[in-house]
Every structure is written in C-alpha cells, then in structure tokens.
TrEMBL record:
It comes from the Bacteria. It is found in: Membrane. The lineage of its organism: Bacteria, Bacillati, Bacillota, Clostridia, Eubacteriales. Its main location: membrane. This is ABC transporter permease. Keywords: Membrane, Transmembrane, Transmembrane helix. It comes from Clostridium simiarum.
C-alpha cells in the first residue's frame, strides 16, 4: 500500500505548478550565486615581493583573514570593541530576526568602563603592549561573561558571539598552506561543494514550505478525505507516503544541479590536470542540504495539520529561516537548521567545525522523523475511526 500511495503522490506533485516555480527559484540561486568557473589560479597566493604592486592596483585583496586563536590578541580585539561601544553609546543585541542596535544608559556605559579598567589601563588603547594586560585569560572570560549578563545577555560579549568577526590578516605562509589544502585535501571540488551547499541550502530552508504546508490540504479541497477514511490505510502509511514523496521530489533538483556542477569541475580538473572528487557535490548535497529539506517539509506538514491551515506554516518557517541564515558561518548550534559556510576553501576552518556540523545534521534528521511521526499521530486523531469524516 505504501508504494502505491508513494507513486500516486509523485504523480500529483509533478503536476503541481508550485514544484516548477520552486525549481526555477533554486535554479536562479544556482546560476546567479554559485560560480562554477573557479580555477586554482584564482586562489594561488602572490609572492610577497609582488604584493604591494597588486594591492595598489585594487584588483588583489591580499591573502585574506583567519580567525584569531592567540588569547592575547583576542583580549586586545575585545578591549578595543569595549572602547568603541562605550564611545558610540550603543551595542548590538541578537534578536530572533535581526541584530538590533540598543542604546546604552549611564549604568550600562559604566559597566563597559569598569570591564575595560579590570582588563587593562587606558594607555593600552594606544600601546599594544601585552604587558599592560592585568588579568589572565580565564579572568578576562569571567569579566566579559559578567558584562554580557549585566547588559541583558545576547550581546557580542557572550560566549556564542564573542569570537565571531575576530580575525587577523593571513600571512603568505598561511595562504600557501590554504592553497595546498585546496589542491590536496579538498581536491578543489569539496571546497566548491561546500560553497554550493551554502547557497542551495538557503533555498532549502524556506521555499519547500509552500508545497509542504498544503500537501495535506489538497485532499480536503478535492473532497478525497471521505474516501481515504473509508479505506484501511493507516495514518502513518498515508502521512509517510506524502512526506517521502515530497522529500524525494524536492531533493531531485538539487541533485541535478549538483550533477551540472560536477561535470563542469570535472572538465576544469581535466584541463588543469588536478585531481577532483566526483562524489563531492552529491556528498554535501545529501549531508548538508537534505536534512534541511526534511526538516522544512516535516515542520510545514505538522503546522498545517495542527491548525488545518497551511498558510500559518509560512510565516513560522520564515522566522526560523531568517534566524538560521543571517550568519555566514561559524555558528552551527542546534538553533540553525541551515548550514552556512560562505567560503571557497578554508579547509582548516571547515575541519574545526566539522564535528559541530555533523551533530547539527544528525539532530535535524532525528527531529524531522519525530515531527512527521507526531504529524501522523495528530492526523490519526483527527481522522477518527475508519469510515468517519476527518473533523
């Protein structure tokens, strides 16, 4: 029965104009946001002897930036941020949709000043002498954590936000290492596939809801619910067949665009004589994008069956989506169901976050299963005994 229902759902889905609008949207993101014309020469570092001339031309932007890992450098950057916020009189706070500028009152400004005084004297502003730092790294952490609480939480001094944006210029040696990693460890295609999944994942986090939210409403509109209730089809079979069909149908376009990117990079690799991974785009599509699709569809179906109204699912999904995509990388907490890694290459940074990304993806796959089972249970309750109308 499941397979018969699955095949029927495929027929219905592929007759729905919304699916083709969805494919067009995904295609626009692919062709306008993801560049499949990169070559290794674009990322080959220029020797320091040529750097000054290239920088003056405005074409070359240097070797890029890397995260600050030295505790003393971190303290310096945060100290300067404290001074800037104190002088400007406002801070940024994380909200559900966007970061919000919050003006500081006199007491809050005093908290900033006291934190600075505890960390280093005022002369540290103009003299980057590590000897002026008065506290250990642990003491510094306690100071900024306490400050975050006094300012109401969710500030850039929280553990979650403090390190975001703290970076320093890469050296030529750093750039050479990144280039070697791109060729040898990433085989170029893994780096490209991460960027591909970053852009494509944005579409997977919202647009599927326009199909998911109304898939259960379709039978009500076509007056098929009485027929469904009169047949010995379990609620779980009915819901799971719809869920599985929609998940597969929406995953297919991503796999097709992944195939297109694979062909292009295969030709680039062949022309430039470097190794590539044929499975890279498929691997990241299934590992990064698929769980996002599964969750978006499961949540849309759950909300629509709870309220008997698919419209409600759209603004709910939009709020969660905006919250998830607003950082370009470095935040893979369980509140983010879209994986952002908006960088081509940067293998060492990816490895640093790989375990967090894995935990995130596993979490959302489990949550998706739980949500669709809850949807089946609720639908079963509303369906009532076989032969009754759905309430």
């Amino acid at each position: 029965m499941f397979w018969n229902l699955l095949k029927k759902e495929f027929k219905y889905i592929f007759k729905d104009i919304t699916l083709y609008i969805f494919i067009v949207v995904v295609g626009l993101f692919y062709f306008t946001q993801f560049s499949s014309s990169k070559t290794t020469e674009d990322f080959k570092p220029i020797p320091p002897s040529e750097l000054k001339e290239k920088l003056s031309s405005g074409i070359y932007k240097g070797y890029g930036y890397k995260d600050i890992t030295d505790p003393k450098k971190e303290i310096r950057e945060v100290y300067m941020n404290l001074y800037r916020d104190y002088e400007e009189g406002y801070i940024l706070k994380e909200r559900l949709l966007l970061n919000t500028q919050v003006n500081l009152d006199d007491n809050q400004k005093q908290y900033l000043k006291e934190a600075m005084e505890k960390i280093a004297p005022e002369e540290y502003l103009n003299n980057n002498d590590e000897g002026l730092i008065k506290v250990s790294y642990e003491e510094y952490l306690n100071i900024v954590r306490d400050l975050d609480k006094k300012l109401g939480g969710s500030t850039n001094y929280s553990d979650k936000k403090r390190l975001i944006g703290l970076s320093e210029p890469k050296t030529y040696e750093d750039a050479v290492k990144d280039y070697k990693d791109l060729l040898e460890k990433d085989k170029v295609t893994n780096a490209a596939a991460r960027e591909f999944s970053d852009y494509m994942g944005i579409t997977a986090g919202f647009f599927p809801v326009f199909l998911a939210a109304f898939i259960l409403m379709k039978d009500k509109r076509s007056k098929m619910q009485e027929l469904i209730c009169s047949r010995s089809v379990s609620s779980y079979t009915y819901i799971l067949s719809k869920y599985a069909a929609l998940c597969v149908a929406l995953l297919i376009p991503y796999l097709l665009f992944a195939t297109h990117a694979t062909v292009i990079f295969y030709n680039i690799g062949k022309f430039n004589n470097y190794d590539i991974s044929i499975l890279a785009f498929y691997k990241f599509t299934l590992w990064w994008i698929a769980p996002t699709i599964f969750f978006t569809i499961a949540l849309g179906m759950l909300i629509s069956v709870i309220f008997n109204n698919g419209i409600i699912a759209i603004p709910v999904q939009f709020i969660l989506w905006i919250n998830s995509i607003k950082t370009l990388g470095g935040d893979y907490s369980l509140s983010k169901f879209v994986i952002r890694f908006n960088t081509f290459g940067d293998y060492s940074n990816y490895i640093k976050w790989s375990s967090s990304i894995a935990n995130n993806r596993i979490f959302y796959m489990i949550v998706s299963v739980v949500l669709i089972l809850i949807t089946s249970l609720i639908w079963s309750k509303k369906r009532g005994a076989v032969g009754e109308h759905i309430k």
